[in-house]
Structures are given as C-alpha cells and as structure tokens.
Design goal:
The chain is mainly beta. The chain contains no helices and eleven strands. Strands 2, 4, 5, 6, 9, 10 and 11 form a seven-stranded mixed β-sheet that branches. β4 (about 35-40) and β5 form a beta hairpin. The chain is globular and about 40 Å long.
Amino acid sequence: QVHLVESGGGLVQTGDSLRLSCAASGLSFTHSAMGWFRQSPGKEREFVGWMNRKGDYIAYADSVKGRFTISRDNAKNTVFLQMNSLKPEDTAVYYCFAVNRNREFWGQGTLVTVSS
C-alpha cells in the first residue's frame, strides 16, 4: 500500500521560510514523478510544482516561481518543498502527490498558515 506523509507545516509570518517534507513508502520512489498541490479555504486545489522521476525537469506555478524549490532525496524516499518569502496568499493545505505507472497517489496534507 502506498503512503505519502507530509510534514513541516505550521504558522509563520510574512517573509518567513518553511520546508515541507513528503515521505513516500510502498512505491518505487525512483520511478515516480513527485510534486505538490495546495488548497486554500474556499478555493480549488492548485498546482504548485512537480519534478520528474529523474529530477532533471521541474515545473512551478507562476505564483510560486522564484520563491519555492522542489527537491528529492532518493535515498530517503522523500521529496521536499522549500518555501521562501512566504505571503499570506500562500496559506493553504499542501498536498504531496506521486505519479507512478500512470497512477496517482496523494498524501493527507499539511497546513501552512502565513500571517500578515
């Protein structure tokens, strides 16, 4: 069974940084594309960014480009989302996802709250 467990969320102030982690188990991590979505209250889930399985292609939403960075540690089966210069509009539940053999898997999410 595939499990994706996010951690690292919390309450921060505008301009602060946070690093989210997503630990994966039950799937071939090195053969999985990994990424992040987020969902703010009252809004639809929004794409944040993703990294292909080799780690040589990364794409970001325009809203986070230049501030957020995705990375992965294949030895630890973990993908990270480094978030810098946080803004109140970044407040959301952040979800990790994996794509492996055309199947999608999702974590339960971790809440990030950015106060103004």
